[in-house]
Write a structure and sequence with these properties.
This protein has 254 residues and is mainly β. The protein has one domain. It contains 2 helices and 14 strands, in the order ααββββββββββββββ. It has a 14-stranded antiparallel sheet. The radius of gyration is 18 Å and the shape is globular. Pfam families: DUF3108 (PF11306). This is DUF3108 domain-containing protein. It comes from Alcanivorax quisquiliarum. Keywords: Signal.
Amino acid sequence: MADLNCVRLFAAALALLWAIPAAAETAAAQEQHPLQPFSVEYRINVSRIPTPVKADMRLEAGEDDTYRLSLDIDSRLMRNSELSIFRWRDCEPRTLHYLHSFKGFRRERDYQMDFFWAPPPRVDVVTHSDDEEPDTRSYPITEETLDELTMLLTARCRLNDEQTDYQLTTAYGKRHRTHFIQVQGRETLNTPLGKLETIRIEKRRDQDSRRRTVFWLAPELDYLLVRARHIESPGLFGELRMIDYEGPFDYLKQ
């Protein structure tokens, strides 16, 4: 049973980086402060037990005024790879292409998603799942729709001191997802860049769900994810902790 629980939490831990909400500066201010490339490494723990599994997230400047954001997890149990190619406008990512490939726990799935923003906006999806034939479909989206990886980057633009509850919509695979977000306060954490003040945020897929994910974002690092915890039950949770960082804030390393 312990092994099965670990498998569930490793799978759930993949979602820890996919749903970070928004944060505190205005779009006008952020347009003066464009995205800066970075590379972050996280360690995955299960119920406070360290594991050898690591997650790597990287932001790079691409061609034609685009950016590339990637997330990779590779271990003996599974391989997970995500890539989003997008443009950055008015403090919002505008996705062009999103790719997600997962293999592990006797499951295999690949999503290839192309976003089209000329009215009416839509997303075209090709799904390869296990041994099934590829599935191709298209569905409408709104101007505010995000993909589940670049949603990480909206954490600098949407929160304000007067509002603590939010909803975000993403397009993932064959359907939309709604994320219910609540800001829970601030907390100081020890990190590879020293002690950082973070904003603590909780996400639920359903408003009444007992399962939840908690994120700690560092405003000093452009609201970068420092820690995340996915809680299945009081005694069973998966956790991501930042263990290394390369980027514009290297000067903070001790």
